[in-house]
């Protein structure tokens, strides 16, 4: 369950977002809509880079966001320092730090599991089950979706789940013959399920707090939608597993199974147990990291030098005095170049480009808020589109989708659009649970579908290292190839779109005198 600290943290983020709305406004040539230029240009850049050119380079997206911010500056009226200040204020928002911390901790944890032979343990299990090698790859996408959904629901972070599964289950299942694109889609689907349903998920808490609803009631009210979408997604992965090409599980890249690697199920279980018991996700994953280090070193799965290693240059004045330690050595012909190495370093370093991109995207969102872009969209929708209750709900669904297309960090997008969903819903007396469910379902789903979305890039950023380690080029899945196969994300989106269009499950706010809830 969510702890009071979790709710307080989210409330702090919401207060900061409100501060942004009340901060001195930026005026643009072209009106309030021009404040969307930085985010709009970035989306165009991402589509061209990933979709047209097939380049899944996160650093390239960082360049695209930088160029977009520079272009946006030329549309600002008056002193440009206010525009620059908005960038700095956006980059220091708590919502960006939340995603970054989750990536860094999860990255270190996942790398420790990978280097500790967890992949070999999974391969041992696959070889032990009484299923033929021809059938097993067709079942793996559905099985992986279920397991990823369970982990994401337990720890409350879809990003952490994506990183953990991409570095462990993904290489193991691809080496066993599963289709890599379908596997990546199944992992992202599991992350969507957890982000949408976990009581400890940031998106769940934000949706409840902003729509004046309790978290327990919100989670209970969305079960029927989530389970329907999940059941259809499992069927989809079983069918797609039969239809989409698999690979022969042979070759030099297939490691031998080792049952000892399964000890890291205890590491993962410790993270889940700690998180479910209300501890902060940083604390939960930290306990998992400690357990993984103890297992790796204590059981001989990986030496201490693989956890962290300092390779000092020959000119270092004091390094010789510490070479008796297993984690310190001097650079030479048989050692790597001077630097810091190891699982912890590799797990964290893989996210540095994505961290920079995240900070810039949140900064661009801040510019759009202070420039009145979001308010202009809200005013347009309220005056011309959301004129009846079903049209209002449809507007919530599509408006949330549009914001998520631009702000690709799902919690940031949710915080940005939440006040407008509340305003539209309250105008038509729509129940808070209903508003929270529409808000969270779309935010959770689309944050793992768009090729430039944070969840997709978090998984993709780990794949180049997998190609280098296992020598299997197909382990590098272009983000633009995976979006059709995030089945649970798409189904969740269409379930709520259908619910909005038909009025299924619609509830109105409690009548204060009769204390009744109206349904249609």
Automatic annotation (TrEMBL):
Q: Does the keyword Manganese apply?
A: no
Membrane topology value: Multi-pass membrane protein
Q: Which UniProt keywords apply?
A: Antiport, Cell membrane, Membrane, Transmembrane, Transmembrane helix, Transport
Which residue windows are transmembrane per the record? Answer: 54-75, 95-114, 134-157, 169-193, 225-247, 259-278, 284-303, 310-332, 344-365, 445-463, 483-506
In alphabetical order, the GO MF annotations are:
antiporter activity
Give one Pfam family. Na_H_antiporter
| Gene Ontology CC entries for this record | plasma membrane
The Na+/H+ antiporter NhaC-like C-terminal domain extends over 41-241, 281-490
Where found in the cell?
Cell membrane
* Broad class of the protein's primary localization: membrane
Task: State the similarity comment.
Answer: Belongs to the NhaC Na(+)/H(+) (TC 2.A.35) antiporter family.
Q: Which PANTHER family match?
A: MALATE-2H(+)/NA(+)-LACTATE ANTIPORTER, MALATE-2H(+)_NA(+)-LACTATE ANTIPORTER
**Name assigned to this protein:** Na+/H+ antiporter NhaC family protein
Organism from which the protein derives? Salarchaeum japonicum
């Amino acid at each position: 369950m969510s702890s009071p600290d979790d709710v307080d943290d989210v409330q702090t983020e919401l207060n900061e977002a409100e501060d942004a709305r009340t901060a001195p406004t930026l005026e643009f040539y072209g009106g309030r809509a021009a404040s969307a230029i930085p985010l709009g240009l970035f989306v165009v850049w991402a589509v061209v880079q990933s979709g047209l050119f097939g380049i899944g380079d996160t650093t390239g997206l960082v360049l695209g966001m930088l160029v977009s911010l520079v272009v946006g500056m030329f549309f600002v009226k008056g002193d440009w320092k206010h525009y620059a200040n908005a960038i700095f204020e956006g980059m220091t928002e708590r919502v960006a730090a939340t995603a970054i911390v989750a990536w860094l901790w999860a990255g270190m944890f996942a790398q420790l599991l990978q280097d500790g032979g967890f992949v070999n343990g999974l391969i041992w299990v696959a070889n032990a089950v009484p299923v033929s090698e021809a059938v097993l790859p067709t079942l793996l996408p559905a099985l992986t979706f279920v397991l990823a959904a369970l982990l994401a629901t337990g720890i409350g972070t879809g990003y952490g789940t994506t990183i953990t599964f991409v570095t462990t289950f993904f290489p193991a299942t691809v080496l066993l013959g599963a289709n890599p694109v379908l596997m990546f889609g199944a992992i992202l689907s599991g992350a969507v399920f957890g982000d949408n349903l976990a009581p400890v998920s940031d998106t769940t808490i934000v949706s409840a707090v902003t729509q004046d609803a309790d978290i327990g009631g919100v989670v209970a009210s969305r079960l029927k939608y989530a389970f329907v979408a999940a059941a259809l997604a499992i069927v989809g992965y079983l069918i797609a597993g039969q239809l989409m090409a698999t690979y022969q599980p042979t070759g030099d890249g297939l490691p031998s199974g080792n049952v000892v690697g399964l000890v890291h199920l205890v590491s993962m279980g410790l993270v889940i147990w700690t998180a479910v018991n209300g501890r902060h996700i940083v604390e939960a994953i930290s306990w998992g990291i400690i357990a993984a280090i103890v297992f790796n070193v204590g059981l001989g799965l990986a030496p201490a030098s693989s956890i962290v290693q300092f390779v000092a240059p020959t000119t270092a004045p004091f390094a010789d005095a510490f070479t008796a330690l297993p984690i310190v050595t001097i650079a030479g012909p048989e050692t790597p170049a001077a630097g810091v190495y190891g699982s912890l370093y590799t797990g964290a370093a893989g996210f540095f480009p994505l961290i920079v991109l995240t900070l810039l995207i949140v900064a661009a969102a801040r510019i759009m808020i202070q420039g009145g872009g979001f308010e202009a969209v809200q005013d347009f929708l309220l005056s011309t589109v959301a004129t009846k209750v079903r049209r209002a709900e449809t507007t919530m669904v599509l408006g949330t989708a549009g914001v998520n297309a631009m702000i690709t960090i799902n919690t940031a997008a949710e915080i940005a659009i939440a006040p407008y969903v509340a305003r539209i819903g309250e105008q038509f007396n729509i129940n808070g649970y209903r508003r929270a469910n529409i808000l969270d379902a779309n935010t959770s789903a689309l944050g793992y579908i768009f090729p430039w979305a944070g969840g997709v890039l978090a998984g993709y950023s780990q794949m180049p290292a997998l190609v280098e380690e296992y020598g299997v080029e197909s382990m590098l899945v272009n983000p633009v190839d995976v979006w059709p196969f995030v089945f649970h994300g798409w189904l969740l989106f269409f379930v709520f779109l259908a619910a909005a269009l038909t009025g299924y499950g619609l509830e109105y706010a409690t009548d204060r005198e009769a204390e009744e809830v109206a349904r249609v």
